[in-house]
Amino acid sequence: MKKALVYLIFVLAVVTIGAFVGMNNVPGEWYQSLNKPFFNPPNWIFGPVWTALYVMIAIAGARTWLQSRMGGRMQLWGSQMLLNFMWSPIFFTMQSPAGALILIVPMLICVIAFIIMTATRDRISMWLFVPYAVWVGFATLLNASIVYLN
Predict the structure, then answer these.
(1) How far apart are CA 20 and CA 18, in angstroms?
(2) Per-residue pLDDT for the chain (150 aa), expressed as one digit of tens each?
(3) What is the pTM of this model?
């Protein structure tokens, strides 16, 4: 029962905070006016993708918490989560693609480091982070392209 509660808390917290950040930092007219690369996905795709990713991130976080609350993997998980939640306010609200690019690079590094550190300790958490790493890698390329084009 205790494990189920940890999973529930992590999923609810991550998805709720992610939704709150997303709803309070929406792309507006400023974003629409930017030059974007040909591979920029439609806006509607971000909500479903991030919701699925946040559930996977939360499950990996809960698993890590249950295994080692104060260990290096949990610190990496927390660091990438903090950077993740800071990206939208910097990009959309502060209207700073360059600032967001500076932030997303260490975020990607934390995600990859989490995967590497988790590979031998918890393969499930490692695999839960792989789609996230791919998406953040894509987002980094997209962010860099927007900086370049504008």
Answers:
(1) 5
(2) 799 999 999 999 999 999 999 999 988 899 999 999 999 999 899 999 999 999 999 999 999 999 988 889 999 999 999 999 999 999 999 999 999 999 999 999 999 999 999 999 999 999 999 999 999 999 999 999 999 999
(3) 0.94
